[in-house]
């Protein structure tokens, strides 16, 4: 197999975690390769969403507690266009809402300015591992399979793909406790935001409940949310709900299974259109709304959970416990206590 080269650090996956890891590694002078299967950087932050939480503390008085690379990202976003700071309604602290298209460019600038090399349209599909360490990766590139070596490989795939390929231990979300569901996000334009604001969150949920119970609309989730964006009259949503877990005999499969994932993508888009129909028919301000974008891919909250050296517990989070070898901070609360 042809080689793609040797690096000090290879990062697999360019979501918020992977892009940040690549920026941090390259800034220390390490030769760094960032590998991403999508045609752009950012993962969920650009393919699915438009808001960062976790930079501010939850509660009535949001305090900013996270900086570093996160500050650089927000500064770059502000250079490219408007950014909104939104108080959060379910207690996650202030959110920073941006245009996903700008964030794609912001990540690219920060990663390449730091000196890291980027390889898009490329998936890590196999690994070589010895003594509990990954030493080489097989990459499926546009030109075929390529081998890359590095003493440090960061698995930032969000799905622990590298750990799975290396045979490291993990559990599947859904095995021990209910797995978080999947969401196809969507954005609509032509919303009369002032009119939308005449009803609150509880009234929106009551309208969803009423529409769902009537049988006229298929709305599996009755407490989804919509929010303003930096574009006048454009609203973004986190509204749909697709279950990801199936039982096959005594085995659990989730969205790491190719068939489950494919079905979920199709079901999510179909569901999104149903929510748009509901919004236009039943929610003040949405009468003239038009769908402009579905999330590039379905949003996955959890799939594989790696057995690491240490497991962060509920008590660690609630006590804001600090670790000597910590590599990141997050101000967000625990969203799902299962
Ligand atoms: C519906 C939904 C709503 C959410 N709402 C919010 C919110 O409003 N605010 C907030 O702060 N957080 C929110 N979250 C959580 C947040 O999105 C995640 O915590 C965060 O984006 C995870 O970042 P990550 O870098 O770990 O993973 P990801 O963003 O998933 O990045 C993983 C990257 O790896 C790539 N990849 C995967 N496998 C491979 C491979 N084998 N080879 C190459 N590349 C690969 C993927 O394409 C992807 O780009 C939400 C999550 C979901 C799903």
Structure, described:
With 338 residues, the chain is an alpha+beta fold. The protein has two domains: 3-169, 3-Layer(bba) Sandwich (FAD/NAD(P)-binding domain); 186-294, no CATH class. 29% of the residues lie in helices and 23% in strands. It has nine helices and 19 strands. It has helices at residues 16-27, 44-47, 69-80, 100-114, 161-166, 193-196, 201-214, 258-282, 314-318, and strands at 3-6, 9-12, 32-35, 51-52, 84-86, 95-97, 117-119, 123-130, 133-141, 144-149, 152-155, 170-172, 186-189, 225-228, 235-238, 246-248, 251-253, 290-294, 304-306. A four-stranded mixed sheet has the order 1-10-9-8. Strands 7-3-2-11 form a four-stranded parallel sheet. It has a four-stranded antiparallel sheet with strand order 14-15-13-18, with helices on one face. A hairpin with an 8-residue loop joins strand 5 (84-86) and strand 6. Helix 1 (16-27) packs parallel to helix 4 and helix 3 crosses helix 4. The radius of gyration is 21 Å and the shape is globular. The N and C termini lie far apart (45 Å). The mean pLDDT is 95. The protein binds flavin-adenine dinucleotide (FAD). Flavin-adenine dinucleotide (FAD) is lined by residues 12-18, 35-38, 43-45, 48-49, 51-54, 123-124, 156-159, 161, 183, 238, 299-301. Flavin-adenine dinucleotide binds next to helix 1, helix 2, strand 4 and strand 8.
